[in-house]
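REQUEST ID: PR-0412
SUBMITTED BY: lab tech R.K.
PRIORITY: routine
TASK: structure prediction, single protein chain
INPUT:
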Amino acid sequence: MNGTFWSSTTLHDDPLFFVDRGEGPATATLLFPVTQLLTLRNAAGDVDYLQGRDFDLDAPAGLVIRPARSRIPVTTRDELYARTDPGDSFMFSRNDPGTYLMFSEGDLFHRRQLRTSYIHPAGQWRGPVPSFDQGALPRTLRLLKTRAPIAIAVAGDSISEGYNASGFLGVPPFQPPWVERVAAALTAASGSPISIHNCASAGWTAEQGLADVDRVGATVPDLVIVAFGMNDSGYASAQDFGGNIAGIVAGVRGAAPHAEFVLVSPMLPNPEWHYPVMERFAEYRQALGALRGPGVAFADVTDIWTELLVRKSVYDLTGNGINHPNDFGHRVYADVIVALLCDPTPGLKRPGLQM
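STATUS: complete
OUTPUT:
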């Protein structure tokens, strides 16, 4: 098993998406500079691309260059920014309502993305590093250390439901969404049998999650993972959002007083999409962090995602072009959450999550 992308010197399945902007060869940037390239293949994993034929590599810069003769999929600027309404006018550009962003809930982006594995120098991740949170979740940690069964309930939106993970879409390489990855990693680390009650629903906000607390509480969960914010960002203030999340915690505790919670801040959407108020994601992150306390941990995906975008493009990480993660993005969610739950001391070693 491999370590997390922030800790290992071998990164597996770094995603790439090539755009022809009419300004020379299309390029895509790796997360880290390269010491040794291992593989470059399509996202499905059934086509390998050849250096010197399909791509050139600037290893110190971590830059992959697509020559004109290449077999690598490439997307044109006109495809990304259509002037004809594709039938879903909700996906128009923030700066121009007459421009429609490329969007698909199917495997359109998956088919155009690549994944590459490579060895890189140590210490390249400059961003935040999630860490084990022993104080916040003592009961969950005790269950993991004793290999006891754990019931996990999930309250969230389409990202938590699994949208755009290849396994959710039913296409190779059939990688599971982040919820299933968390369950598998916890079982591998501890031996605890994990049962999942996924109450997430596409399009939902924290306000709808608050109205659904009875269903979540009825699962009698040991741990509840709460992951909203993407759909809230178009209308809800941080105060309202934080209040709804606090209400979910209080409501579930009314039915399951022993339950503990992980509150997850969301990935960032395509900033060109008109719907979200981008400033709210940092505000939501602060609101969720303020709720941390006994029995409540905070999984900060937003901060990690912000750092990823220093080198990666939105289209490297997207599953649908707008507001869902691809396989790598689901891996990020899982890595951040599992880091809070797995004790790095002997007896409960944290496994790496491999794509």
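NOTES: The chain is about 30% helix and 20% strand.
REVIEWED BY: pending
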